[in-house]
Design brief:
disordered N terminus; metal-binding; 7-stranded mixed beta sheet; hydrolase; CCR4/nocturin_mRNA_transcr
């Protein structure tokens, strides 16, 4: 009799076998005696383990047992729970047989015998064909690959298989817009999982021969589904899908094994898109990925959901925008389509919610060959994505402006100037703004490296002096990375700088200096004035020039966003034209049903000199 746990058996799923498995094959396996599945979740940090399995009557049991409990108690509880299910299934089975093969008296006798047998189900746990002793603790007894026997039904124990903790489709699904399911996995990852998309068959259409995987959803018996032929995480419905619901069949995996499959149906059918979007014409310039010598770069403040979904936003900032067009599910459709349509090599985003990064942007952009890194600010943060076929990530050098200014010797001289103005110093150190710095290496030429910086400076209209100091910290830090750590590498500095071309911050970046008597040092009044002269090392220019506006809302429009490049090492190949004024103002201002943010993306092709 087995008493002590040995090495766990490892289930090694073969991807192609799982992908090709059909309903017919599964039925054949069951007829040949294939075992059911008993899923055990056992995590050291939790006092209980969970056990899930299906009974003979088709019902599911989910049990919670103490990890330190002897196995015998758990088996007794399973026997009690299984009694009704097995008795009911046995009685139904015998009743059907008796109606065909026996007289009324014989049927009663056999039925009674069957019920008696069902009252005493055999419940045992085996490991390596030996019964596990009942005094073994649950934490040690329920090993991967063990066999649970309940009556005449055997279950293969799967301990901690890949499983979904969250599995959702977006509420709004529109033709022509990529659909990205929200997935969270335990003991697995999306890259090791299997996906298969279906759409409803049109009314009157027969279910395809062979069908799809058995449904774990609540679709009606009359529902029939057709395979779309798409086996990726992201699916882009076509106009032919309008009016039809979608279904996603997914098997969670981790590259070595697979867990229980799940199916999810969209609540609503695919809808027609909003018509022409502000970015559709721009996509005509970016149909293909840029050639290897070019770096297509995007900078975009995508409007954080934490700001869009407030009463103030709906009634004061964006009262002209249809409420549904401010909802995240709707805007994500537009953001995903806009970004993927640029076929960019670098994408720097601001106002990125953490969940939007992990659940929406990462899977959608991964499907188009990009990988991303994220830096949280407070309620939202920054994201930088790069094309994996062109770049690899060498290192990250992110900072908080406040922390760097207070603790990094690099900014000692600037801090000494600032402490002379206590009110200004207090305001500067209260800000939560951050700088994201990533060093990338070309996959085609390892000698080529590039420093990509991304930031979102303080927003307040009267915060000009704060933005000047934040930019001074940023440029000093970028110089340290691009000159000291990686001497001579080019710099691309993207962001929402909340500064028009007439401000001190822009003047400082472009000219390399700012005098101490510049009016922005008193941007919030004389009490907070902090006169100081600043200089920086770089020779920078705005790659996209000075557009009339990159932010267009009801009460303001102006150029706040830039892609700054180092003139010594980079040059501009082309700038993708911004939407026309007519396109921007079709629905009065931004955001709108055809544009997901109050900002406009900057897009340009750069190349090494």
């Amino acid at each position: 009799m087995w008493r002590l746990p040995g090495a766990r058996a490892v289930l090694r799923g073969v991807r192609t076998a799982v992908e090709q498995r059909s309903r017919t094959e599964a039925a054949t396996e069951t007829a040949a005696g294939a075992m059911e599945r008993a899923v055990v979740r056992c995590v050291p940090s939790e006092p209980k383990l969970s056990l899930s399995f299906a009974l003979a009557d088709g019902s599911h049991k989910n049990m919670q047992r103490d990890q330190s409990e002897p196995l015998g108690r758990a088996l007794n509880r399973i026997a009690t729970n299984a009694l009704k299910g097995h008795a009911k299934a046995a009685a139904a089975k015998k009743s059907r047989k008796n109606r065909h093969n026996a007289s009324g008296g014989a049927a009663c006798a056999v039925s009674g015998s069957e019920t008696a047998a069902a009252c005493e189900p055999v419940v045992k746990l085996y490991y390596r064909e030996e019964a596990v002793a009942e005094d073994v603790l649950n934490v040690d007894a329920w090993q991967d690959g063990a066999v649970l026997q309940i009556g005449d039904v055997k279950y293969k124990v799967e301990r901690n298989p890949p499983a979904f903790t969250e599995f959702q489709l977006p509420r709004y699904i529109m033709a022509g817009f990529p659909v990205c399911p929200k997935l969270n996995l335990e003991f697995g990852d999306p890259s090791g999982s299997l996906f298969r998309w279906y759409k409803e068959s049109k009314p009157g259409a027969a279910e395809p021969e062979g069908g799809g995987p058995s449904s774990l959803s609540t679709s009606s018996p009359s529902s029939s589904w057709t395979e779309t032929g798409v086996n990726e995480r992201v699916y882009t419905p076509s106009n032919a899908d309008i009016g039809l619901r979608l279904k996603l069949h997914c098997t969670p995996g981790n590259g070595q094994r697979f867990g229980p499959s799940r199916e999810l149906e969209s609540v609503c059918p695919v809808e027609a898109g909003p018509g022409t979007c502000t970015f559709d014409h721009r996509h005509l310039y970016t149909k293909k990925v840029a050639e290897d010598a070019l770096i297509r770069t995007v900078s975009y403040n995508i409007l954080a959901d934490t700001y869009a979904q407030t009463e103030f936003s709906r009634t004061v900032l964006y009262p002209y925008c249809a409420p549904y067009a401010l909802e995240l599910d709707y805007r994500q459709n537009l953001i995903q389509k806009e970004l993927t349509g640029y076929n960019a090599d670098l994408i720097c985003l601001q106002e990125v919610d953490r969940a939007v990064f992990s659940d929406s942007l990462v899977p959608a952009l991964e499907a188009f060959g990009l990988e991303g890194v994220f830096r949280i600010k407070q309620h939202e943060g920054l994201a930088t994505f790069y094309r994996k076929s062109k770049f690899s990530l060498l290192s990250q050098h992110d900072i908080s402006f406040q922390e760097a200014l207070e603790s990094d010797p690099l900014h000692k001289e600037l801090l000494e100037k600032l402490v002379l103005y206590p009110l200004a110093q207090e305001k500067v150190l209260q800000r939560s703004s951050v700088l994201q710095v990533s060093v990338l290496q070309s996959t085609k030429d390892s000698s080529k490296k590039i420093c990509v910086a991304n930031t979102h400076l303080y927003w307040h209209p009267k915060g000009g002096y704060i933005r000047l100091i934040q930019m001074a910290v940023a440029l000093a830090h970028i110089r340290h990375v691009s000159c000291d750590l990686y001497p001579g590498i080019p710099v691309i500095f993207c962001g929402d700088f909340n500064s028009t071309p007439s401000t001190g911050m822009y003047h400082f970046v472009i000219t390399g200096s700012i005098p101490e008597d510049h009016e922005d040092w008193a941007s919030n009044g004389e009490e907070e004035r902090c006169n100081m002269s600043l200089t920086h090392f770089f020779k920078l220019k705005s790659a996209c020039g000075e557009p009339a506006y990159t932010n267009y809302v009801g009460g303001f429009h102006g150029c706040l966003d830039y892609i700054f490049i180092d003139l010594h090492t980079l040059e501009v190949e082309q700038v993708i034209p911004l939407p026309s004024h007519e396109e921007v103002t079709t629905h009065q201002a931004l955001p709108s049903v055809s544009h997901p943010s109050d900002h406009i993306a900057l897009v340009c092709d750069l190349k090494w000199k």
